[in-house]
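Treating backbone geometry as a discrete language has practical consequences that deserve illustration. In the encoding step, the backbone of a single protein was reduced to a row of integers, each denoting a local shape. The amino acid sequence and the backbone structure tokens for this protein are reproduced below.
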Amino acid sequence: MNWTEICKSKDHEAIRQALAEGGDVNWRDPRGRTPLMLLITNRAPVQSVELLVAGGADLEIEDKMNETALIKAVKFNQPEVIDRLLEAGGHLDSPHGILGTAWHAARKRSNQLADKLLQTTGALRLTLTDKEQDAIDAIIYEESLDKVCGLIEALESPVLLQAVVSQYNWDDGPQAMLTAFSNPNIAAITLIDMYQLLDGDYWVGIAAEELKSPEDVACRELALKIRERLASQ
């Protein structure tokens, strides 16, 4: 029995026959992928996916890239398969933290897809209402730094703080982001994003004598603060 060829063919009856003959539904290929993952990566019809799920496919097996079937369904943009896997009890959370979740993978495709997975621990809604986007625009396009910081300081929504960080022009300097960092409503995933956007590893690793301006000092301060807070959570 060759699960690789069966899954590549996307032949529903061949899959049914393989299961009837006792084929190992959790067999692994050299890359650690199960038949369920192979069906998803080959964009098989959802009915074939349902066959393997009903046949006892383990939804939480990870391949060598630490990806589950649910993450594969996200990466291959199959919303209907995502729904079926969730209905079958697929886990949203990951032992690798939020960066290892299907929600995080979905962010790279679209906000709408990520919002299907909002029950993930630590996830934030990414799609904004028109009113919310207007509030973000008022911050992003405000020319007065003092007013920008005041508006960020007043934000009570982790969703809006996430939007500010993701849409912020870092060429405008780190001060507004230091204010966002100090807002008690900021979420852990937003801090992770902020650290990446800041290129935090660079600023943490730079020697003090290489800091050439007050802005450089502030960038390093922000990077160190984010790393310390994340380490304590």
User: Anything to note?
Assistant: The chain is about 60% helix and 0% strand.
